[in-house]
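Input set for joint prediction.
Command: fold jointly, output tokens.
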Amino acid sequence: MRSVLQASAKKRGLVLDPRTKLLLLVTVAVFVLGGAGGEALRWATPCLCAVSLALLITAGKYKTAAVCVAIYVLMDTLQRSFGGRTEGIVNFLLLASAGILTRFLPSIITGAYVVSTTTVSEFSAAMRRMHISERLVIPLSVMFRFFPTIGDEFSHINAAMRMRGVSLGGGNAGKMVEYRLVPLLFCSVKIGEELSAAALTRGLGADVKRTNVCEIGFHAQDVAVLILCIAPYVYLILNAVGVL
Amino acid sequence: MKTNKLNGKDLINVGVFSAIYAVIVIALAMLGYIPIFMPLLALIGPIFGGIPFMLFLTRVKKFGMILMMSVIMGILMLLTGMGYYSILVGIISGWIAEMVYKSGDYRSTKKAVLTSGVFSLWIWGNFIPLFTNITGYFSTRQDFGQAYIDALTRLMPLWMCPTLLVAAFVGGILGGLLGRAVLKKHFIKAGIA
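tokens >
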């Protein structure tokens, strides 16, 4: 058991507390994706992106990191070199797709890092430390565990339906949505039932305080990331108060 | 055994259906990058979301599940950079939806369709920044290109604000009806609705 834990800890590289990761995710969403603070906080964007990317690399996700960087560089180059030279619909498509991809990539990188390095038990341990109600923690952890499942099932259903000609080019376009959603719902419901049976055997429904083996806590690396995450908020508040 | 407290199974159901609902809404939201689809999202999202939502409602027998799903949608929207308005709207609309479905004793299908309409109002929260602060919204989105910004600004005059709220409600009702039809056609027969 111990070796298993060590192996996973080693594979995950720099171990951060789940709470730090969540703060990083929210910060990236608010400042990079949501653009809070406007131009004044432009400096925060590259810092946060660099941290997320570095964390993703320490977690050993070289391929994901490389693909994200490649897309970012490609889109940025396209935007810079052709943005002013094209016109009309081409310009519109180019700028919109480049703008959207470059805007969403940092969040995707951070999200990929958080999801791929946080186990469900770590997540619920962190949530419990923050005294968040079980009623919110259980649905949230089920949901995050469920997203990959949905993607997986959907790609299988999609393949089956394409084979039967239920696709855009297959002449049954009208049935496309129904023939994909209904099987997806069926298998999701079944998986959900299995999940609740498994969770009940682990005492999820019982009125007792559950224990958790995950050791979470803040270390030096957490403090560094936390300071970086809090800085933009402090700047925003100081700016609002009028000090800066 | 029959208590009003939510147990593990209920909470897991909330998680599972929130995940399906979120995937559908977020996948549709990608259409929003074609400006004309942006306002239409308030209508399309709830229509397709209605199918899982109606199936979800067949599992709801206790107070709190709809509200929780609504709050979770708000949290997800915050994480995907749509701002915090959806959480605020979601808490209110989710609570009303909860009341509506409760008044039908968690059984009435007519009330379920209405619940779907009220629940869908959370999606309106995503559009609020476009009306309260459109220059601020776009000041950080200059890289989308001026053509996109102009097109979207033209599509979003102030009267669109209440229109979108109504559109979300109508979308939810249509989605509820669609969901009910799909339930009848597939799920009741199979015994999982």
